[in-house]
Design a protein that fits this description.
By secondary structure, the chain is an alpha+beta fold. The strands form 6 sheets. A 4-stranded mixed β-sheet has the order 21-22-1-23, with helices on one face. The longest helix is centred in the middle third of the chain and has 14 residues.
């Protein structure tokens, strides 16, 4: 990770000059959770279609420091090989999740569930990651307590110490707030528990189902996948058998990001190897706004290996109609596409209210867009008002742009591509956490973008 690298982008001044195809990688938010689930297995697991992003490499290092064996490989058809990970947790000899690594990525907290289930103890720091608001973990710790674990926080070093004498115990847990992380973490913890665990008011994101279905194929007993109620019959400590590889589903957030980019900057764009059925809220909003989108669900009509196409997108962006956005848990509008969609709305005609219901502190990028000329008013910390269309250009004081988190980083890249002038974007290591080789993929579509060290840019 190089924190001094920047993107230099020559904007298209509103013209739609990009075209081509982009293939979607495996979902980071499923791959990371499958990596933690490998702790539940007796022997080596194989995880296929893994994205090559910084967050994945961070989790690799966390697992290695615990003592796990992790190796990179490849899998797939000839000419279509994708990266794979081989993980063997049998040699884990430490229950202390590395604090420095874990603080850089909030997904590290998910590892506590499998660790506590298998080794009956774990120590970990308050999770970090993107600067997009507070990340309380009460849902995790309270759930563990109901399953029989003792939880304490050492204020001196901000480390949580958790221990479960014997196995975790099956119980009933109602989540006061829908949480993806708590749902998948306690689901995995319950897999090795004694007895039945019922989780209510669960998140229903497809990434959770992706991991759950794999666990079931290897000996777990999880019922209610894809619904708000999960019932897990624990194995009583018996580890799972790595009978089948985990195959990561396509990244719906990456697909949605390129879809929004295509709407603003591309005449024709084909988004391949994606799941259109996982992006219905986004596709519907953009279609209603006027973007010429068509969808192919794959050869078997099951959504796998589908395509999203933008074809003949020649009308000016000002022809697009504004609409309101309210982020929600799946299948609602994803919070991870809120920032890129705001960049889109600055170019559409009309007024849009954007309400962020999932995370506070997720509007830090608004200042960058405003400096470029966007008309955005802050109503409160969770709501903004966007008026469009407004031309975007480099600010008169030549202030550079900054990636404040993974998705805000993509939003400012999109704004720069849409705008007029030459733009410099810093903190792009945050973008690298979620988007693999973004500049190379944009170049292939015709974008003028370069990655440089800040000293030479």
């Amino acid at each position: 990770m190089n924190t001094k690298e920047t993107f230099i982008i020559e904007g298209l001044a509103g013209e739609k000059k990009l075209s081509g195809e982009v293939r979607i990688n495996g979902a980071k938010n499923a791959a990371l959770k499958a990596m933690t689930a490998a702790v539940l297995f007796d022997g080596q697991t194989t995880l296929e279609n893994m994205p090559d992003t910084d967050d994945i490499h961070t989790m690799v290092e966390i697992l290695k420091k615990l003592g796990a064996t992790v190796e990179w490989g490849s899998a797939g058809e000839a000419g279509r090989e994708r990266k794979a990970l081989l993980i063997d947790a049998s040699k884990i000899g430490s229950a202390h999740i590395n604090a420095e690594l874990a603080k850089t990525m909030r997904a590290s907290v998910v590892l506590t569930g499998p660790m506590l289930a298998r080794f009956h103890k774990v120590t970990f720091p308050a999770p970090g990651g993107c600067v997009i608001g507070a990340r309380p973990i009460d849902l995790f710790t309270e759930g563990y307590k109901k399953m029989g674990a003792a939880v304490s926080l050492n204020d001196a070093d901000c480390l949580y110490n958790m221990a479960a004498p014997g196995h975790l115990k099956g119980t009933e847990i109602f989540f006061e707030k829908i949480s993806v992380g708590a749902t998948e973490t306690l689901m995995m913890a319950a897999v090795l528990a004694d007895g039945k665990t019922t989780l209510k008011n669960c998140a229903m994101e497809p990434e959770i189902g992706n991991v759950a279905e794999w666990l079931n194929s290897c000996g777990a007993h999880i019922a209610g996948i894809g619904t708000p109620i999960l019932e897990i019959e624990g194995t009583g400590g018996r580890l799972l058998s790595p009978q089948k590889p985990f195959v990561t589903i396509p990244d719906r957030i990456e697909a949605g990001s390129f879809l929004i980019l295509g709407a603003l900057c591309a005449k024709d764009l084909v988004i391949k190897d994606c799941r259109p059925d996982h992006l219905e809220s986004v596709i519907s909003a953009l279609k209603d706004s006027g973007v010429p989108i068509s969808v192919a669900m794959g050869a078997h009509g099951d959504g796998k290996n589908g395509e999203i196409r933008i074809t003949g997108n020649t009308k000016p962006n000002s022809s697009f109609k504004a609409f309101n956005v309210r982020t929600q848990e799946y299948p609602g509008f994803p919070t991870d596409l809120q920032a890129p969609m705001v960049a889109y709305l600055t170019q559409a005609t009309g007024e849009s209210s954007v309400l962020e219901t999932i995370f506070e502190g997720r509007f830090k990028y608004v200042g960058d867009l405003s400096n470029m000329g966007a008309d955005i008013d802050s109503i409160n910390p969770r709501e903004i008002l966007v008026k469009g269309p407004t031309p975007l250009r480099r600010s008169s004081d030549d202030k550079g742009l900054s990636a404040h988190d993974i998705r805000a980083g993509f939003a400012v890249v999109l704004a720069a591509l849409t705008g007029k002038g030459r733009f410099k974007i810093s903190n792009i290591h945050l973008i690298d956490r979620g988007y693999e080789k973004l500049e190379e993929r944009l170049k292939a579509l015709g974008a003028d973008i370069e990655r440089k060290n800040s000293a030479s840019s």
